[in-house]
Amino acid sequence: MSFISQMLRDLDQRNAAALPAAAVPPGLRAVKPVARPRVDRVRVLAWSLVLLATLAVLWPDIKGWIAPASKAPALAPVAVNVPQGGVVSAPAAAVPPAAVGTVAIAAAPAAASPLPPSAPPAVALPPQTPPQTPPQTPPQTPPQTPPQTPPQTPPPPSARTAGQGAQASMRGGRPSAREENARLYRDALAHLQAGRHELAALGLETVLQRDPDHAGARQSLAAARVQLGQLEAAVEVLEAGLARDPTQGGWALLSARLLAELGRNQQAVHTLERSLPHAAGQADYHALLATLQQALGEHAAATAHFARALARKPDEGRWWVGAGISLRAQGQHEAAQEAFAQALASPALPAVLRAYAEDQRSGSQR
C-alpha cells in the first residue's frame, strides 16, 4: 500500500505541475479537472494497466474483505456530502465525474472480523467554517433631553437703558444717521491706510458734510489732500475747521506749515497768532512762528519766540542758530556769538547749519 500511496502522490504532483496555478485552487490539486474537451486514449490505457496491477497485488486482501462482508447483514450506505472544494484521496480515474459531490461509505458491521492492517482510502473533508453569529444590534441609548437653560436674570437698569437707546436709534430696521456716518468714517480710514487716497477723500468729505464738527474726519481729510499733492485744498479744510474751533492748535500748526510751503508766510503767521493762546506751551509752535517772523523781518518778535521754544528744548541746535541770526540782525553781537556757540555744542545740528555757525563765529572774531 505504501507503494501505491507514493505513486498517487507522484501523480498528484505531476498533475499539479501541469496545470496553471491560477486555474486550480490549492485544495483541489489532487483531483483532475472534471470537464475534459477530449479523452486521451493513451492516458486511459495507462490508468487501466495501473488498476489491473493494483488489483493483482491487492486481490488477497480484497478476497478477505469480501468473504466476511457476504455473511454480514447488509447495511444502508451512509451518504457523506463532500463540498465541491473537498479532497478525495483516491485515484481520479476511480471516481466518476458525477460522484464528486457525494461519496457513499458502507458502515462496518458491529461484529465483523478484524480488518487487515491497511485501512481503506480516507475521505478528507474540508475544514468546517465556524458558524456565523448574527450581527448584534447596538443597544439603543435613550433620547437625551436638551439641557435646561437657567432663567436669565434681567439686566441692570443702565444696561436696559443702553439697549433701549440702541434699539431706538434703529428706525425701521435701518441704522441712524450717526451710525451711518460712523461707518463711512471707518471705511474712509481703511482706504487711507491702504493708500487709496482718492476714495478716502471722497468718504471723508461725505462725513464732514453730515457732521462739520467731526475733528478726526477733518484732520484725516487734510492728510489725504497732502498725500495727493493738493496743498491748497488741505489748507482750506484746516482753515474751515479753525474758523469753527480756533482751539485746535495742531490744525493751526499744520496749516501754517502748508502756507509756508506755498510761500504765504504772512497768512501763516496770522494763522499761528490766532491760535497762539491755545498752544502757548508747544515748543514747535513757538519755533515755527519765530522762523516765519524772521523771514518777514520781524526779528524782535522772532527772538522772543525762539527764547520761549529754547526754554522748553535747550538742546535744539537749529533754534539756537535762528536766535543768533535775529540777535545779530538787531545788533546784539555778543548774544549772537553765544547763540552760535550753543548751536555748535548740539550734536544733532545739521551739517549745513554747523558750517554756517562756524563761519559766523570765525567772522566775528576777525
Walkthrough of the structure:
With 366 residues, the chain is mainly α. It contains 14 helices and 4 strands. The protein is elongated. The relative contact order is 0.04.
Largest sheet: 2 strands, antiparallel
Low-confidence stretches: 1-8, 15-37, 72-127, 156-166
Count of distinct strands: 4
Q: By helix and strand content, what is the structural category?
A: mainly alpha
Helix content: 55-70%
Strand content: under 5%
**Tally of alpha and pi helices:** 14
Strands of the widest sheet, in order across it, are 1-3
Encode the helix/strand succession as letters.
Answer: HHEEEEHHHHHHHHHHHH
For the terminal residues, how far apart are their CA atoms?
144 Å
Rg over C-alpha atoms, rounded to the nearest angstrom: 59 Å
What is the 3D shape? elongated
Average pLDDT taken over every residue:
73
Structure characteristics:
366 residues; mainly alpha; two-stranded antiparallel sheet; two-stranded antiparallel ribbon; 14 helices; elongated; disordered N terminus
Structure at a glance:
The protein has 366 residues and is mainly alpha-helical. The protein has helices spanning 2-18, 41-71, 157-169, 177-193, 197-210, 215-227, 231-244, 249-261, 265-274, 283-295, 299-312, 317-329, 333-344, 351-365; strands spanning 78-81, 87-88, 102-105, 123-124. Helix 6 (215-227) packs antiparallel against helix 7.
